Amino acid sequence: MARPPRFDTARLLDAAVRLAAESGPAGVTMSAVAASAGAPSGSLYHRFAGRSALLAEVWLRTVEGFQEGYFVALKSSEDPRTAGRAAARHIVAWSRAHPEEAALLLYGARDFGQEDWSDEHRRRAAEGNQRVLTAVRELADTVGAKAPQDIERITLALIDVPLSLVRRHLRGGSPLPPHAEELAEQCTAALLGG
Protein backbone atom coordinates (compact mmCIF):
# COMPACT_ATOMS: atom_id res chain seq x y z
CA MET A 1 0.00 0.00 0.00
CA ALA A 2 1.36 3.41 -0.98
CA ARG A 3 2.15 5.95 1.70
CA PRO A 4 -0.03 9.06 1.73
CA PRO A 5 1.80 12.12 0.42
CA ARG A 6 3.64 14.01 3.12
CA PHE A 7 2.69 17.36 1.64
CA ASP A 8 -0.92 17.07 0.59
CA THR A 9 -2.79 19.77 -1.31
CA ALA A 10 -4.69 20.99 1.76
CA ARG A 11 -1.47 21.56 3.70
CA LEU A 12 0.07 23.48 0.81
CA LEU A 13 -3.06 25.62 0.42
CA ASP A 14 -3.10 26.27 4.18
CA ALA A 15 0.44 27.65 3.87
CA ALA A 16 -0.65 29.80 0.93
CA VAL A 17 -3.59 31.18 2.94
CA ARG A 18 -1.23 32.15 5.78
CA LEU A 19 1.05 33.95 3.33
CA ALA A 20 -1.87 35.76 1.69
CA ALA A 21 -3.18 36.86 5.09
CA GLU A 22 0.25 38.20 6.05
CA SER A 23 1.47 39.70 2.78
CA GLY A 24 -1.44 39.77 0.36
CA PRO A 25 -1.59 37.90 -2.94
CA ALA A 26 1.90 39.10 -3.92
CA GLY A 27 3.31 37.04 -1.04
CA VAL A 28 1.91 33.82 -2.49
CA THR A 29 4.68 32.50 -4.68
CA MET A 30 5.54 28.90 -5.39
CA SER A 31 8.83 29.15 -3.50
CA ALA A 32 7.30 31.02 -0.55
CA VAL A 33 4.53 28.44 -0.17
CA ALA A 34 7.02 25.57 -0.41
CA ALA A 35 9.23 27.19 2.25
CA SER A 36 6.27 27.95 4.52
CA ALA A 37 5.00 24.36 4.28
CA GLY A 38 8.51 22.90 4.61
CA ALA A 39 7.95 21.14 1.30
CA PRO A 40 10.15 20.77 -1.75
CA SER A 41 9.16 23.02 -4.65
CA GLY A 42 8.41 19.93 -6.68
CA SER A 43 5.49 19.17 -4.37
CA LEU A 44 3.81 22.38 -5.49
CA TYR A 45 4.53 21.93 -9.17
CA HIS A 46 3.21 18.37 -8.91
CA ARG A 47 -0.18 19.73 -7.73
CA PHE A 48 -0.41 23.14 -9.41
CA ALA A 49 0.45 23.92 -13.03
CA GLY A 50 1.94 27.24 -11.95
CA ARG A 51 1.41 30.27 -9.75
CA SER A 52 -1.87 31.25 -11.42
CA ALA A 53 -3.33 27.80 -10.66
CA LEU A 54 -2.11 28.07 -7.06
CA LEU A 55 -3.65 31.53 -6.64
CA ALA A 56 -6.92 30.35 -8.17
CA GLU A 57 -7.13 27.37 -5.81
CA VAL A 58 -6.30 29.49 -2.76
CA TRP A 59 -9.03 31.98 -3.66
CA LEU A 60 -11.65 29.44 -4.69
CA ARG A 61 -11.13 27.10 -1.74
CA THR A 62 -11.54 30.04 0.64
CA VAL A 63 -14.60 31.48 -1.09
CA GLU A 64 -16.26 28.09 -1.52
CA GLY A 65 -15.64 27.24 2.14
CA PHE A 66 -17.25 30.50 3.18
CA GLN A 67 -20.17 30.11 0.78
CA GLU A 68 -20.95 26.60 1.98
CA GLY A 69 -21.96 27.90 5.42
CA TYR A 70 -23.60 30.99 3.95
CA PHE A 71 -26.00 28.90 1.87
CA VAL A 72 -26.78 26.69 4.86
CA ALA A 73 -27.64 29.84 6.85
CA LEU A 74 -29.87 31.14 4.05
CA LYS A 75 -31.82 27.86 4.14
CA SER A 76 -31.90 27.63 7.95
CA SER A 77 -35.50 28.82 8.30
CA GLU A 78 -38.73 28.89 6.36
CA ASP A 79 -39.01 32.54 7.40
CA PRO A 80 -36.84 34.55 4.95
CA ARG A 81 -36.13 37.31 7.48
CA THR A 82 -34.87 34.80 10.03
CA ALA A 83 -32.75 33.13 7.36
CA GLY A 84 -31.39 36.51 6.26
CA ARG A 85 -30.39 37.36 9.82
CA ALA A 86 -28.68 33.96 10.11
CA ALA A 87 -26.75 34.66 6.92
CA ALA A 88 -25.55 38.01 8.28
CA ARG A 89 -24.44 36.33 11.51
CA HIS A 90 -22.63 33.68 9.47
CA ILE A 91 -20.50 36.28 7.70
CA VAL A 92 -19.25 37.65 11.00
CA ALA A 93 -18.99 34.31 12.83
CA TRP A 94 -17.11 32.67 9.95
CA SER A 95 -14.70 35.61 9.79
CA ARG A 96 -14.11 35.36 13.53
CA ALA A 97 -13.47 31.61 13.28
CA HIS A 98 -11.28 31.91 10.16
CA PRO A 99 -9.32 35.17 10.52
CA GLU A 100 -6.64 34.28 7.95
CA GLU A 101 -9.19 33.32 5.34
CA ALA A 102 -11.25 36.42 6.14
CA ALA A 103 -8.14 38.58 5.66
CA LEU A 104 -7.59 36.89 2.30
CA LEU A 105 -11.15 37.76 1.26
CA LEU A 106 -10.43 41.46 1.80
CA TYR A 107 -8.91 41.16 -1.65
CA GLY A 108 -10.81 40.24 -4.76
CA ALA A 109 -10.42 37.51 -7.35
CA ARG A 110 -8.65 40.00 -9.62
CA ASP A 111 -6.00 40.49 -6.95
CA PHE A 112 -5.46 36.73 -7.13
CA GLY A 113 -4.78 36.90 -10.87
CA GLN A 114 -8.23 35.94 -12.13
CA GLU A 115 -7.37 37.06 -15.67
CA ASP A 116 -4.75 34.27 -15.82
CA TRP A 117 -6.93 31.50 -14.36
CA SER A 118 -7.86 28.46 -16.37
CA ASP A 119 -11.32 28.18 -17.87
CA GLU A 120 -12.23 25.65 -15.16
CA HIS A 121 -11.20 28.03 -12.36
CA ARG A 122 -13.15 30.88 -13.95
CA ARG A 123 -16.18 28.63 -14.33
CA ARG A 124 -16.07 27.69 -10.64
CA ALA A 125 -15.83 31.35 -9.65
CA ALA A 126 -18.71 32.35 -11.93
CA GLU A 127 -20.90 29.52 -10.64
CA GLY A 128 -20.26 30.53 -7.02
CA ASN A 129 -21.07 34.16 -7.74
CA GLN A 130 -24.23 33.16 -9.60
CA ARG A 131 -25.38 31.00 -6.68
CA VAL A 132 -25.03 33.97 -4.33
CA LEU A 133 -26.91 36.30 -6.68
CA THR A 134 -29.66 33.73 -7.15
CA ALA A 135 -30.01 33.17 -3.40
CA VAL A 136 -30.24 36.91 -2.75
CA ARG A 137 -32.84 37.35 -5.51
CA GLU A 138 -34.86 34.42 -4.21
CA LEU A 139 -34.92 35.87 -0.70
CA ALA A 140 -35.79 39.29 -2.12
CA ASP A 141 -38.67 37.75 -4.04
CA THR A 142 -39.89 35.93 -0.93
CA VAL A 143 -40.09 39.17 1.06
CA GLY A 144 -41.80 40.97 -1.83
CA ALA A 145 -38.80 43.06 -2.92
CA LYS A 146 -39.29 43.48 -6.67
CA ALA A 147 -38.00 46.95 -7.60
CA PRO A 148 -34.28 47.36 -8.35
CA GLN A 149 -33.81 49.58 -5.27
CA ASP A 150 -35.47 46.93 -3.09
CA ILE A 151 -33.20 44.22 -4.43
CA GLU A 152 -30.25 46.54 -3.75
CA ARG A 153 -31.50 46.94 -0.16
CA ILE A 154 -31.67 43.16 0.26
CA THR A 155 -28.13 42.83 -1.12
CA LEU A 156 -26.96 45.44 1.39
CA ALA A 157 -28.70 43.52 4.17
CA LEU A 158 -27.39 40.08 3.27
CA ILE A 159 -23.89 40.87 2.03
CA ASP A 160 -22.57 44.42 2.15
CA VAL A 161 -23.42 45.51 5.70
CA PRO A 162 -22.07 42.41 7.48
CA LEU A 163 -18.96 42.41 5.27
CA SER A 164 -18.29 46.08 5.96
CA LEU A 165 -18.37 45.41 9.70
CA VAL A 166 -15.83 42.60 9.29
CA ARG A 167 -13.70 44.57 6.81
CA ARG A 168 -13.40 47.62 9.06
CA HIS A 169 -11.97 45.60 11.93
CA LEU A 170 -9.71 43.39 9.82
CA ARG A 171 -8.26 46.34 7.92
CA GLY A 172 -7.79 48.22 11.19
CA GLY A 173 -5.97 45.27 12.70
CA SER A 174 -8.44 44.97 15.57
CA PRO A 175 -10.35 41.85 16.58
CA LEU A 176 -14.04 41.66 15.93
CA PRO A 177 -15.89 42.88 19.02
CA PRO A 178 -17.98 40.37 20.97
CA HIS A 179 -21.19 42.06 19.83
CA ALA A 180 -20.37 41.99 16.10
CA GLU A 181 -22.70 39.10 15.19
CA GLU A 182 -25.57 40.72 17.06
CA LEU A 183 -24.92 44.09 15.40
CA ALA A 184 -24.80 42.52 11.93
CA GLU A 185 -28.05 40.70 12.61
CA GLN A 186 -29.77 43.88 13.86
CA CYS A 187 -28.68 45.88 10.83
CA THR A 188 -29.81 43.12 8.47
CA ALA A 189 -33.18 42.87 10.25
CA ALA A 190 -33.70 46.62 9.89
CA LEU A 191 -32.93 46.52 6.17
CA LEU A 192 -35.08 43.46 5.54
CA GLY A 193 -38.01 45.17 7.20
CA GLY A 194 -41.05 43.58 8.80
TrEMBL record:
<dbReference type="InterPro" id="IPR001647">
    <property type="entry name" value="HTH_TetR"/>
</dbReference>
<keyword id="KW-0804">Transcription</keyword>
<dbReference type="InterPro" id="IPR009057">
    <property type="entry name" value="Homeodomain-like_sf"/>
</dbReference>
<feature type="DNA-binding region" description="H-T-H motif">
    <location>
        <begin position="29"/>
        <end position="48"/>
    </location>
</feature>
<feature type="domain" description="HTH tetR-type">
    <location>
        <begin position="6"/>
        <end position="66"/>
    </location>
</feature>
<keyword id="KW-0238">DNA-binding</keyword>
<protein>
    <submittedName>
        <fullName>TetR/AcrR family transcriptional regulator</fullName>
    </submittedName>
</protein>
<keyword id="KW-0805">Transcription regulation</keyword>
<dbReference type="InterPro" id="IPR050109">
    <property type="entry name" value="HTH-type_TetR-like_transc_reg"/>
</dbReference>
<dbReference type="Pfam" id="PF00440">
    <property type="entry name" value="TetR_N"/>
</dbReference>
